[in-house]
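fold-stage: in
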Amino acid sequence: MPETPHSPDAEPATAPDEAPDAAPSPDAGASPDAEAPPAPLLELRDGLPEVVDTDAGLLEACAALAAATGPVAIDAERASGYRYSNRAYLIQLRREGAGTWLIDPIPMTTLAPLQEALAGAEWILHAATQDLPCLREVGLTPTSLFDTELAGRLLGYPRVGLATLVETILGQRMRKEHSAADWSTRPLPTPWLDYAALDVEVLIELREHMIGELAEAGKTEWARQEFEHLLGFEPAVRVDAWRRTSGVHRLRGRRSLGAAKALWEARDEIAAERDVTPGRILPDSAIVVAATAMPSDRRALLALQGFHGRGASRYAASWVDALTRVREMSEDELPSRAPRGDGPPHPRTWADRDPVADRRFKAARESMLNLAEVHHLPVENLLTPDYLRRLMWAPPATREPAALAEGIRQQLASYGARPWQAELVTGALVGAVLGAEVEPG
C-alpha cells in the first residue's frame, strides 16, 4: 500500500507519493554502538486464505463478515506505475470473528453484497485517501472510518508508514517488498498475496492502541473531526495537468509549451485507451526533447537524440500530428507561460506587491510552526498551507479583534478547515493580521 505524507487537503512537506523513512534514533541511554535486537517478523495468524474470485465465493465472504463484530480492516492494491486507471485489483478485509478475506474484484458481477455486509461497520484504513477512490469506484463506501496514518500524524509520530507504526507501536516488522508490484497480474503470486494479507493483519490492534494514545493526548475529538472529513474526500482535479511534465520548465517560448501540451494530451489519450501508465508509452523526457526541436516528420522525430520509449515509433504518427497542429496554431491559441490560478500569487512576490500581506504571512507562518511544535503534529495538519496563504492575502476587512476572529473562523470554515483547527489557530492569526498593520520601525 502506498504511503501518503499528508491529510486529504494538506500539502506534502516531501514528495506527494512517498514518505521518508529514516533510520530510528538509538534509545536513550544506549551506547552508540549497541544494536537493538530485530523485532519479530509479522506472520499471518490464520494462514493465507484463498482468493475469492467468483460471485458465489463473494456471498460466502459477505456472510462471514456480516456475522462478525467490530470494525473492519480494509485495504486495496492498485497497479500504480503500470496501469492508467486507479482501479482496485485486490481488496483485503479482516474482521474479528471472520478472519481475513482476499477479494479479486475484477471478475465480479457486483460488490453490492459486500457493501451491504459492511453496513454500519467502522472501516480501518491506512492512508485512506489512497484507497477510498478505488473502493468507491467498485461501490464500496464507508459510513465511518479510522485512518491509522492520519492518527499517527495527529499523535506526532515522525514516520507514519504502516510498517514503521507497526514496528514502533506493536513491536513487529512487516514485509515491504511487494508494494510496487503490478497487481493487475493474474494469477497473483503467493508471496504477493501473503504481503497483501499482512496489510490488514494488525490494523484492528493498531487502532486500539492509537485510540488510547489519542485519548491520553486529548486529541480524540481532533481525530473524530478529521475522520468525518475524510468521508467526503474526493481527489483533486488537476488543472493543466500537462504542466507537471518533468522538465517542461526548461522549454522556452509558448509554441514549445504548446507542443508539450499537445504531446502530453496525445499520450494521455493513448494511455487511457490501452490502460497503461503514460510514462510507459513515452517518457516525459522524450516529450520535452520533441517539444524543443519541433520536428516536422517521422524521420526527423525518431532521429532526435533522447526521443525514445515503447511507443516512440509505434505511435509516431500521433506525435507528428500533434506537433503539426501546434505549428499551425495562432499565438493566442498557445498556452501561457504561467498557469492561471484562482488563488493568491506566490508568497515570494508579496513583499513587492503588498508589503502588509507579506508581513501578515510571515508572522502567521511563524506562529503556525510554533503551534505545531507545541501540539506535536505536522504544521500541514495544523492548517493546510493553501488556507493560510489565501487568508493572509485577503483577510476579513474588519480590524476589531472580536469581529476579526469571527471572520477568520468563518473564512477558514469556507475553505474546509475543521473546527478544532480553527479553534487552535484563530488567536495567532488575529495577532498576525493586527501586528502587520504596524509599520516596522
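fold-stage: in (second)
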Amino acid sequence: MTEACVGLGSNLDLPARRVVAAAARLAGWPGVSDLRCSRLYRTPPWGDADQPAFINAVAAFDYAGSPDSLLVALLAIEREAGRVRGGRRWGPRVLDLDLLLFGDEHIDSPTLSVPHPRLRDRAFVLLPMADVAPDLRLPDGTAVADAAAACDRSGIEVLESAQAAA
C-alpha cells in the first residue's frame, strides 16, 4: 500500500456536488482504502482568471496499485463526470483530478509528473492537504502543515467538510 494524495476541483455545474461525488467514487475504486477527504474550499481561479471560482479539496488514501493505474482511475472518474480534455489551459472544468503525491516516488513521464510540479505554489492544494495529511512531507522535506501555514490565503474561503456537503 502506498499513501497517495489527489487534488479535486471543479468550477462548473454544481462544483461542490461534483467534488463530493468524485471523492465518493474514488473511495469506492478498487485498490483505494482509508480515504480521508478535506473540507471544501472556494478558491479564485489560477492561471486564467476569467472564469468562476473553483471548489477544491484533497483526498489522501492508501492505494494498492501503481501510479499509472491510479492515473487511469482518475481519468475515468473525470470522464464519467463529463470532462472532455483538450480545452483551454487552466480554463473552466467540470472536474479536475490531479495526482499530487504517490508515496515518496518521483515520476517524470510524458503522462505523469509526481510530485505535482506546482504543488508548493498552490494554496488551493496545500490548505486542503493540511486537513488530511498535515504531517506528510513534501519533496523538499517541509511538512504539509508548515507549507500551508506559509502560503498566501488571499481569496480562499473554507466551506464545509466534503462529508457534510453530500
